[in-house]
């Protein structure tokens, strides 16, 4: 027990020291010019890119998740692709000026960024968050996932060495070496931390939003993929299987359930098998359900990012090396339906839709189960269908005719390269954007007067008297008219008076 207490105390002490150094370094970094900042960012991006494969191997060895060759691609997106997307952005001093409106925009950093890193993408996310922090003259303090401390620390070491060699203040990039939840919680509430970038499980993201600090968090991504009847089936299925098997499904934007129009369902099944899918029978499906979710409503962490061979062993199935994913036909959706959950592994549910309307219902129910605000994938040759889904679905990204996993992070699309994907208010997030450098900037605005305005003195405005006839005068006029009409007139004086007043009011406008 004393060892545990000592470790927690050491973790807290380390966190305070790292944050203190980061704050001091950031204060010095504030005086750096745009040119100096850009030199540092470029040096870090190049160093990270060079170590992409080495760190990918280290991540797989430490976490047991994913494929080194695929994690290399993630590292390349998190380093070079992110750099290319932000390298020309102005982030120092005056960044924009509208001479017509006499409006000047000035960039100011947030300060110290607390970055929470997931076990699924431990090195690529570290690269990405470091680059966007440095580009905006922020310091960064990273809290690694307990199962990925070594590889995350090594990634940060690569970044730190490159940054200091390029002239950055020491301490600008910090990393917590102790895996301590208490230290992570204290980091998020530390008085010198200015913003939180939280990528991880729902509980951690909720803690970030509850910290009292500005925070960017991401929600779960139970991504449906709809293969509409006009889709090029062969190409669509090939991309879907490639996407699902990419790094064994560890990207949160990876497809989780296939919805296929019944007109092409047979063709889709054939193509799935041709691309290495193992179609589970009912008995095998039942066994796999217990592997996916031993406890109802919760996904087994042992399957996350693991190979088909490993998962087959847990389910008591015998497969060969040609199998890339598992697929089971499903009709139900719910927390007690394992195949309908976000599995983060090479396991698919397959739903058959009667028509486009039914497909929308299935997609909506899957998103409501745990993916609202994140992403939806669709394969179709009918742009009307794609646009209709984009308008109707409660998601922040709609990926059309591409790999959802890689497309959502900007690998195959024009979206901003990012390893933190906002889910908007659909998913309880502050933004629906792919998080990037601009999200770590305060924009100050200097505005010159361009309009003249006369401010009246108190009491200088005289309210004119109403031109309307007073009600009492109207009543007297109505009574005299009725008296002239004789006793036979059955008229309500008050009612006629009100009608006359309304007529006068109408014509006096």
From TrEMBL:
Lineage: superkingdom: Bacteria
Pfam families according to UniProt: Aldedh
Molecular functions per Gene Ontology: oxidoreductase activity, acting on the aldehyde or oxo group of donors, NAD or NADP as acceptor
Keywords: Oxidoreductase
Keyword Transcription regulation: no
InterPro entries on file: Ald_DH/histidinol_DH, Ald_DH_C, Ald_DH_N, Aldehyde_DH_dom
Location of the Aldehyde dehydrogenase domain: 14-275
Keyword Oxidoreductase belongs to the record: yes
Protein name: Aldehyde dehydrogenase family protein
